[in-house]
């Protein structure tokens, strides 16, 4: 009922300026008065405008909306343009309103290849519009939940007296490694890297934007910029779970002062939720059109026989490297479902694909973008050839699918190292962004090892069990329930002008 009330309330706001408010109320008989909606806590969510950050933030938004909160999800204008009116309407009925602010780049800018330029523009362009939005929203915001990489949201929230929650979308190992750098406990390759709970990590696994170890570098500052403000947030929430990164979580809480750390993951709809909740495992993507015909193709395949190949939304390959990947997949002998974006070869479609597809047409299905979570949970999938983005990694872990990691940039080398270190798969070696070509023979060999390894299958299955144990029957982890309770308590205390924001609730241990 709350979602319908929020839907009607927002639609009323959208039409009241044009004098159609009364007819809008008549159209939606479940509407309540504006005053009733203003009694609900109103959460403002702002992700970094990249798919690997927006997807987990949207999943968090869905959980919060289902739990009884009003949610406004703020994205960049560029990303908002990609959301269809039908998708916006569907979100609104779930209790999630979409709004947008500019990212500062020209409308026709290629945000896939201009990552650094976009990050620079976000920090210079977004603060003003975001603060103005907070000051004018109805109902007034009761909490801001924002990506850690957008530290201006902390200042804006504090200046307006609004509690702030920081959302870290990468692994705990990644956060711990950055704390070592930020606190001058690790200064580069002349020292041994010692990430708690991840002794297998080395300097070459560090975030690629950090490895210059040069504070004057913009991306170095961008990656570390939000860490010194984490103590100003009421909570720091992370899309991971205790049994996956227990030691790292405990060390960050005890030794780095992050007592407000919540492991709210995995932020994924559970398979059995379809009949009980509004969030379904097979719901389409909000931000990108998906080709769902691949599911029918998978239905005709044997269990654990198919390799799923996807390198995310930003990775770029040379045509030579792309061809070696294709030939390696052809030689491995396994059927494969391959996500091939139209811009994956530096903005150009691959020239060799027509002849290639004729040769492998009986055992390949290629899509521009697919329903990844549904694919990973399909019984036909036996392995995942991935760029190692944390969102993809946590999805595969929760689905019990072993991985072959091949990073592109940022935190992905560390994620791929964790995949191997946790016994959930192996690394291809090198990086997609390197000039050094990974040959077809290497790809064939590693894929065969991944798909044939009982050890990887068993380890991945065991970790899937732990991932499922991390959440209750309704899909909420214990720490996510703690977050939701504290958000409601904070709202009620602010309504009664109580100076304390957060109830003394404890994170999971």
UniProtKB/TrEMBL annotation:
Pfam families: UDPGT (PF00201). One of its GO terms (molecular function) is quercetin 7-O-glucosyltransferase activity. SUPFAM superfamilies: UDP-Glycosyltransferase/glycogen phosphorylase. Its EC number is 2.4.1.-. It is an enzyme of class 2 (transferase). InterPro entries: UDP_glucos_trans (IPR002213), UDP_glycos_trans_CS (IPR035595). PROSITE patterns: UDPGT. It comes from the Eukaryota. Keywords: Glycosyltransferase, Transferase. The keyword Transferase applies. Coiled coil: none annotated. Belongs to the UDP-glycosyltransferase family. PANTHER family: GLUCOSYL/GLUCURONOSYL TRANSFERASES (PTHR11926), UDP-GLYCOSYLTRANSFERASE 85A1-RELATED (PTHR11926:SF774). This is Glycosyltransferase. It comes from Ceratopteris richardii (Triangle waterfern).
